[in-house]
Amino acid sequence: MDDFARAVEATLFASVAPLSVGEIQEHVGEGRVEAALGKLSAHYAGRGLQLVERGGRWHFQTAPDLAPLLRRTREEPRRLSRAATETLAIIAYHEPVSRAEIEAVRGVQISKGTLDVLMDAGWVRPAGRREAPGRPLLYATTAEFLTHFGLGSRRDLPGIDDLKAAGLLDPLDHVMLELQLESEGQDD
């Protein structure tokens, strides 16, 4: 492995957060960071550590099959309420989206606490304001959201067919979704 790739490796190991290619270049200087990342990714493939890219940011993580070996205490999974889960899904699939748009899709108002929980988890962030009357605040997902759910980008979110195959769509929800899609198609 050449000295430049070693410098990229050291930078990623020392970082407390995932780094973009530009942030890596700030530390190691100009060079072929993408090529070095490719070499490192191949070097760590199949090992106890893996070099992964999530949302345009690179970091080392424990190989998924070895993660249980490193747990010393039992993690209590954070359970999201149905409202928070629905809100997170709407933001992920429609971002950037305003509070009013989230409420229109859900059909009910959302409490401020729901968005606060998602922002505290680091999965949702304010994403500016819409150029419309009232200039509503927009929300979008974060790189932490992608990392937590193991997604390379939002394009990796499951589609309707994937959700049906996994049994995650309630038959009534599926019928309502199809009716909504049909009515939107007729409005065009």
Automatic annotation (TrEMBL):
<keyword id="KW-0159">Chromosome partition</keyword>
<protein>
    <submittedName>
        <fullName>Segregation and condensation protein B</fullName>
    </submittedName>
</protein>
<keyword id="KW-0131">Cell cycle</keyword>
<dbReference type="InterPro" id="IPR005234">
    <property type="entry name" value="ScpB_csome_segregation"/>
</dbReference>
<keyword id="KW-0132">Cell division</keyword>
<dbReference type="InterPro" id="IPR036388">
    <property type="entry name" value="WH-like_DNA-bd_sf"/>
</dbReference>
<dbReference type="InterPro" id="IPR036390">
    <property type="entry name" value="WH_DNA-bd_sf"/>
</dbReference>
<keyword id="KW-0963">Cytoplasm</keyword>
<dbReference type="GO" id="GO:0051304">
    <property type="term" value="P:chromosome separation"/>
</dbReference>
<dbReference type="Pfam" id="PF04079">
    <property type="entry name" value="SMC_ScpB"/>
</dbReference>
<dbReference type="GO" id="GO:0051301">
    <property type="term" value="P:cell division"/>
</dbReference>
